[in-house]
Amino acid sequence: MFSGIIDIDIFKVNDEYYISEVNPRFGGGYPHAHECKVNIPKMIINNINGKENKALIGEYDEGVLFAKYSEVKII
What φ, ψ does residue 44 adopt, rounded to 5°? Predict the structure, then answer.
């Protein structure tokens, strides 16, 4: 069982899923959660203090767009 922040890379190849990496760290998508007002440090503190975190699925500001790129392209 995992606890805390974990970044898992999963790939789908021909209808099968493969795990390539499991890292105990913030992943590259963390800034998206942060900008959607998900306060991960507060959630970690809650967990340390034995408090359950409220589910935040669907609680975000509409009309905000984010993008994640593995490369930078300047045109």
Answer: -65, -45
Output the furthest CA–CA distance in the chain (Å, rounded).
50
| CB of 27 closer than 8 Å to CB of 4 | no
Query: For residue 48, how many C-alpha atoms fall within 13 Å in the half-sphere facing its CB?
Result: 7
- Concatenating the DSSP letter of every residue in 19-60 gives EEEEESS--TTHHHHHHTT--HHHHHHHHHTTPPPPP-TT-S
Please give the structure tokens belonging to residue 48.
Answer: 């340390």
0.70 exceeded by pTM: no
Whether 24 shows a pLDDT value over 70: the answer reads yes
